[in-house]
Amino acid sequence: MSQARLVKIEKDILGYNDAYAAENRKLFADKGILALNLVSSPGSGKTTLLCRTVGDLKSRLAVAVIEGDQQTTFDADRIRATGVPALQVNTGKGCHLDAHMIGHAVGKLGVADDSVLFVENVGNLVCPAGFDLGEAAKVVILSVTEGEDKPLKYPDMFAAAELMILNKVDLLPHLSFDVDRCVRYARKINPAIRLIELSATTGQGLDAWYGWIDEKRQAVLSDRALALETKLAAVRRTLAEGA
Amino acid sequence: MHEMALTEGILRLLEEQATTQRFHHVRTVWLEIGELSTVDPEALRFCFEAIRSGTVAEGAALEIIRTPGQAYCMDCANAVHVGQRYDPCPDCGGDSLQVTGGDEMRVKEVEVE
Ligand SMILES: Nc1nc2c(ncn2[C@@H]2O[C@H](COP(=O)(O)OP(=O)(O)O)[C@@H](O)[C@H]2O)c(=O)[nH]1
Ligand SMILES: [Mg+2]
Ligand SMILES: [Zn+2]
Fold it and tell me: What pTM value is reported for the model?
């Protein structure tokens, strides 16, 4: 019988995912890709919003979509019908996308430089919160038919998100949904969370959403411009030194 | 819940460490699971017992250490303890808390042979 001993490990359980996420993040930075991770419960309108968004944006910038669902290619088919490249990732029994799947999907899809990549996560307000995909930001979508207490019931997701989209506001006249209360709950969990109210079907509020995307894209592109300038300066220096 | 994915993560980590730290069997695993993390310890225990066989952790005991939720209150500028993300500040009742610790999910130590 061998002797028992204690071994220090001190490692994050999700360290393997975080390592893949860091690889994705580096690739996105190198290529100037703005990656957004859209999370929500099933049916809050992620695919509807994405179809509308890519349709409106594709004439002025390059866009691509990765669709996560446990089964079927319905959502990727809906996106492709708008003429935008999309890839479906089926997680089977898995309840979330992980960074490894996204790395593969990005390779397969061939995402263009300086583009916007939307990732529609599996409909689930719990698990996707813990899995970094290497995105620039998580966007949580809540529809007004779901009840204003969701931020308190699923705090981790609202804590992890940078932007909260309140969708289906066209239905507000028919419901007793209290927008102010919902926002108060969300800010209680995450004081810095941004809020955009919109309707993916009527188009109301979409300009604010596109404005937010442009703002995030500016940040990614100016970082990339800086990196390219540094690289260019290094090449010019080598050249001046009489190569 | 994603406790199954987390358990797979734990076992993956143990298999890796078995090679690098030269052990062939794990007797006990100590985890640090923060109060504010997304894990339900009982569900994690259930998953671990369900899938540990056939791995280096076959028959291993699981010890879960809960680390306290910590936050900084922007209203009263105190470091405070919170049991849940939406708890108000225990000192001043304020709502503007920034979580500073207690959301970890780590494998801390193992007893091996
Ligand atoms: N009234 C209304 N219905 C919407 C809106 N956005 C989505 N829906 C409907 O909500 C249902 C679920 O939408 P879908 O995009 O598939 O949700 P997903 O599961 O989050 O991708 C569909 O029947 C949509 O037509 C909206 O802004 N207003
Ligand atoms: Mg969908
Ligand atoms: Zn306080």
Answer: 0.91
